[in-house]
Amino acid sequence: MRSLIFWRRKTAEIKQDPAPSKLKYRMQRWMLTPGIRLGLRIGVPFCLVAVLGSAYMANEVRRDALRSFVAEMRQTIRNRPEFMVNMIAIDGAGGDLADDIREVASLRFPVSSFDLDVDLIRDVIVTLDPVKSATVRIRSGGVLQVDVIEREPALVWRSHQGLALLDETGAHVAELGHRSLHSGLPLIAGNGADAHVEEAMQLYSVARPLGQRLRGLVRVGERRWDVVLDRGQRIMLPAKNPASALERVIAVSEVRDLLERDIAAVDMRLAARATVRMNNTAVQEWWRIRQMNEGG
Amino acid sequence: MTDLYQSQRAMRQMRRQSMQRGVVAVLDVGSSKIACLVLRFDGSSRLSEDNSIGSLAGQSGFRVIGAATTRSRGVQFGEITAMQETERAIRTAVQAAQKMAEVRVDHVIACFSGANPRSYGLDAQVDLQGQVVTENEVARVLAACDVPEYGQGREVLHAQPVNFALDNRSGLSDPRGQLGQSLAVDMHMLTVDAAAVQNLVRCIKRCDLELAGIASSAYASGISALVEDEQELGAACVDMGGGSTSVSVFMKKHMIYTDAVRMGGDHVTSDISMGLGVPTAAAERIKTFCGGVHATGADDRDMIDIGGDTGDWEHDRRTVSRAELIGIMRPRVEEILEEVRARLDAAGFDQLPSQQIVLTGGSSQIMGLDGLASRILGQQVRLGRPLRVHGLPQSATGPGFSSAVGLSLFAANPQDEWWDFDMPNDRQSGGSIRRAVRWFKDNW
């Protein structure tokens, strides 16, 4: 029991005199130094993480495993149902055009919205002829919403390739199998006519008084317009300022019934010298009447 | 002398460094306790323009961020007698204060009370070389002071110019820039035993701390316990510590006299211990809880259980009346105060215009001391507590901490000392030749 008592007394003495040992004192002072504190709080954890991280990464197998894990994780997140696009909704396009859009977008649903490049899809859709403009976005509920504004066909263009529909800017809208499908639309013909649709539209509006007699406009020599009427009549317009020339012809025709007469063409190519070409029978008749009048 | 000048200047430099770093520790090495305050300096600690202390009593520049006290070991009469023990005690106090402050302190300003302080009044007069009093002139007049033989093993602790006189105008605190013919200075020099100072310096060095200043605790407690008026008009501060009672006399905000009585509260305790036959710790406890110096009729019936744990029932159940305890304490306290009276008389304290005496220090908390002191020391006696400083914990506001608090005020606003002025030019190079020339000029 002696040792126990001794031990107890010793602890009591220590309690009375709580002086820190020199080492403890230095340690405490050391730990209160700002640099050391900063190093312990930031530097040591940083180094530890760096060492452990690089030790883990030193192995090729682990590196690959980590990489594949990351890829897998990413794939899982991409394939979550919240991010999936299940259908395409196309607004503002007719049946054929919608089919075409589906075809060019060439999407296989369901697809993750991370994999969809909306801008690219929009660019592809806009390259379609009947599409004037399009907006593509991913709507909530996993729907790829495509809003399309179609081109309105304004003219029928007859060329060597066949009939084509053009809009008011001259852009190609669609091939046309038969003229009667769009009998209400004005007709133009000739090479390069599609580049001057605006002028043609203007001429059509001027030529409205001609009514049913107007058959169409022909682009001649990729330079100027001819107005073709029924009975084979033509009004040959100059390359420059064709609308005013046509107005003049119409005005003369209304006063003098020029186009009702048996003439083949009105040549307005030279503005200073408008020429009327008559048909053969009319010429014969005219000669006969003159002879009759001279003789009489 | 030059050696001391250099070492004191080095300490001043250290103090300036620590002020720049912003943290300094103040260490009061007493006989019964060691107190450590950690100060943080933030902002300027300049006095206001009229050189008064100002609304925040001149301590707006610092804040106490750590305070710790520990029982002193190995210190007797305010001198270190067992260096290992004292070092351990200093370490304890510094560690606890650092822990509270959560900052590491490297610089320490220390004070101690013992080591036989002795005051000297020096004076000197020189003729000015020019008309204007410059720094160099001040340094020259300080250097011209006739230093007395203060003994081999002693060292100068303070040497403060307390008064300047220009021609026949006296009482100047700062003569620089003024015009005159001759400049005279009165200086107060305090010497202590060199061995005690060296022991303290060594102790602090061994705790990995740098000494940034050293002061007499009489001076420090005078700074904090005397109010500004008392310092200005003249007062004596009696710091009754554990092992020694130090006396400092202030006049015009300068300390003009210091002395110490090598008796204190520990002697009262040992008297009780011997008189009642109890261990010192028990005697200390009885003194603190039941002690007093004025016996009344009720004290005869007031029995104090003095206890003990010997196992002997009779011995452990001893009681003593409070009157007996007072009978033991009173002669010793009277002796201390008589001794203080003798020292003050020797210093000519009764010649001062104001006779105010302020009692402070841990032993001044003895009940009824002020009544006893006024019978021995004179009518104008009061008990003093240290100034309030920012951040000082409540536990450190008692009179026992007046020297620690005073030392922190001293750290913030040190008084100009001799070594704060540059060495005069003629001392530095070719001094002897020039002095010879001057001697010739003066004598022929």
Automatic annotation (TrEMBL), chain A:
PROSITE patterns from the UniProt entry: POTRA (PS51779)
GO BP annotations, alphabetical order: cell septum assembly; FtsZ-dependent cytokinesis
Role played: Essential cell division protein.
Major localisation: membrane
Keywords from the named record: Cell cycle, Cell division, Cell inner membrane, Cell membrane, Membrane, Transmembrane, Transmembrane helix
Organism superkingdom: Bacteria
Parts of the chain that traverse the membrane: 38-58
Gene3D superfamilies: Cell division protein FtsQ/DivIB
Family: Belongs to the FtsQ/DivIB family. FtsQ subfamily.
Name of the protein in question: Cell division protein FtsQ
InterPro entries per the UniProt record, alphabetical: Cell_div_FtsQ/DivIB_C, FtsQ, FtsQ_C_sf, POTRA
HAMAP family from the UniProt entry: FtsQ_subfam (MF_00911)
Record's bilayer topology term: Single-pass type II membrane protein
Domain called POTRA: residue spans: 83-151
Cytoplasm keyword on record: no
GO CC field: cell division site; plasma membrane
Cellular compartment(s): Cell inner membrane; Membrane
From TrEMBL, chain B:
Protein task: Cell division protein that is involved in the assembly of the Z ring. May serve as a membrane anchor for the Z ring.
Gene3D superfamilies found in the cross-reference section: 3.30.420.40
Assembly and oligomerization: Self-interacts. Interacts with FtsZ.
Lineage, uppermost ranks: Bacteria, Pseudomonadati, Pseudomonadota, Alphaproteobacteria, Rhodobacterales
Keywords: Cell cycle, Cell division, Cell membrane, Membrane
Family to which the UniProt record says this protein belongs: Belongs to the FtsA/MreB family.
InterPro entries registered for this protein in UniProt: ATPase_NBD, Cell_div_FtsA, FtsA/MreB, SHS2_FtsA
An individual GO BP term: FtsZ-dependent cytokinesis
Record membrane topology: Peripheral membrane protein
Superkingdom in the source lineage: Bacteria
Gene Ontology cellular-component annotations: cell division site; cytoplasmic side of plasma membrane
One Pfam family cited in the UniProt record for this chain: SHS2_FTSA
Protein name: Cell division protein FtsA
SUPFAM superfamilies xref list: Actin-like ATPase domain (SSF53067)
Record domain SHS2: where: 24-225
Cellular compartment(s): Cell membrane
Main location: membrane
